[in-house]
Amino acid sequence: MIRRSLTAIAPALLALLAGGCAYPYTPPALEPVTRAAPASPVSAAATTGEAKAPVTILVSIDGFRADYLARGLSPNLSRLAATGATGVMRPAFPSKTFPNHWTLVTGVVPDRHGIVANGFLDPAHPGERFTMSSEQPYWWNAAEPIWVTAEKAGIPTATMFWPGSNIAWGATQKPNGDFEGGLRPHDWQQFSGAVNDRQRVDAIIDWLRRPAATRPRFLTLYFDEVDHMGHEAGPDSPEVAGAIRAVDAAIGRLRDGLAALDQPVNLLIVADHGMAATSSDRVVALDQFADPADYQLIEDGPFAAIQAVPGHEAALERRLLGHHDHVDCWRKSEIPARFHYGRNPRIAPYFCLAEAGWLIRAKRPDKPFAGGMHGYDNADPSMAALFIAHGPAIRPGIRLAPFDNVAVAPMLRDLIGLPPGRGLDGTDAPVRRVFKR
User: Phi and psi dihedrals of 213, rounded to 5?
Assistant: First the structure.
């Protein structure tokens, strides 16, 4: 476990984290999840004579916009795309990290799976707020992730930092507040930004050194630095270019490690969303057309989630609803149908969406800034996400028409050997032609 492994490096690491400087720090190597086989580069298959069955690995490169692939910075990803299948993938709305990572592994849109933003309130849990560190299962239990489905079917799974994979999915809360039951992947790691890309890849390879009886057949892997640099410096920055090169090197390390194990793999490499450039010159201040005394701002940025102060609904609606320069505001029941968003009780009563590249804030910023953001209209080209499929089950040279990311979970079910899911919001139809069979 990463939590256990980080104990040994604590005081220096904690000081770095407190200062917000975790990224440049390279911590010592993690303890292997399983004890490594001989250090020799000779493959496990060669030493045991074992013929290995393909495994499936779902890789997320957070914030990797679809057109980043054409920048000539990622030879490993480009090679996989050229010899496999690729296409432009539309994220679910809102085009945020946690809603889309949960959609990718459930096949259900945020309006139904309940992770409706990176931060939100729930009338069923007054006084509580969902954040990206929330681990109570009741936030997550509305849709079953694929690793739970696989574990129920006897398919061993392992997840490296996938959002939500640390949750005891399906656990119930007892009267005393404790949780009981629930399922996780057979192996999982608690997220830590101090664990670098090399260590993340090496954990995957280490899991796959296991004997066939205990080797994971479905794994996930998550990289976040492209997104982080996109927010900090913007999608067209040298910092993003460097992050693209770095994650591409990690993909190369993954492929080399798999080759050394003679491990055939079906790889799905995806992103959760793209990135749009933002700046302090493109900010819509809510206090310019709505009275702050009339509302509570639950979340702001590319969209604003708003609830009225009790008794102030009419006053708020007179000022807020309708079109404003670079922003549209609706009652939740009137959010355009194409977003498939607005029925879940966790969505705030009023919702404003900014034009891509604009930000909604409570008031004008005090200082100039420039960077990047996502969460906009999921049909906007700047929100389009990476999709690459490669492996023994995938036909080479396939270029897919743009499709919605609810097709990923059904595709994973095909690759893992699970039956088609029921009650999903997507099918494998948009991606079915990538399969050799």
Answer: -65, -25
How high does pLDDT run on average in the chain?
Answer: 90
| Separation of alpha carbons 352 and 307, rounded Å | 11
Q: Which domains does the chain show, CATH number per domain?
A: 44-277+379-434 (3.40.720.10), 281-368 (3.30.1360.180)
With 50 as the cut, is the pLDDT of residue 23 above it?
A: no
Instruction: Give the pLDDT confidence score for residue 29 in this predicted structure.
Output: 40
Q: Is 97 annotated as catalytic? A: yes
Residue 35 has pLDDT above 70, yes or no: no
For residue 59, the model assigns a pLDDT of 99
Q: Is the peptide bond before 94 cis (omega within 30 degrees of 0)?
A: yes
C-alpha to C-alpha distance for 116 and 46, rounded to whole angstroms: 48
Residue for token pair 């993909």: 251
Asked whether residue 85 carries a pLDDT value surpassing 90, the answer given is: yes
Query: What is the spatial distance between Cα 51 and Cα 61, in angstroms, rounded to a whole number?
Result: 30
Among 213, 212, 244, 201, residue whose Cα is nearest residue 226: 244
Radius of gyration (C-alpha) of the chain in whole angstroms: 22
Asked which of 19-28, 61-70, 287-296 is least confident by mean pLDDT, the reply is: 19-28
Helix-, strand-, coil-residue percentages of the chain, each rounded to 5: 35, 20, 45
User: Of 87, 19, 184, which Cα lies nearest the Cα of 397?
Assistant: 87
Q: Residue 409 belongs to what H/E stretch?
A: helix 408-416
Catalytic option among 56, 86, 97, 220: 97
> Would you state the structure tokens that stand for residue 177, as one six-digit string?
């507040």
Are 391 and 84 contacting, i.e. CB atoms less than 8 angstroms apart? yes
Measured in Å, how far apart are the chain's first and last C-alpha atoms? 38
pTM, rounded to two decimals:
0.89
Distance CA 36, CA 50 (A): 17
Q: Rounded to an integer, what distance in angstroms lies between the CA atom of residue 302 and that of residue 282? A: 11
DSSP per-residue codes, 98-165? HHHHHHHHH---HHHHS--SSSEE-TTSTT-EE-TT---GGGTTTS--HHHHHHHTT--EEEES-TTT
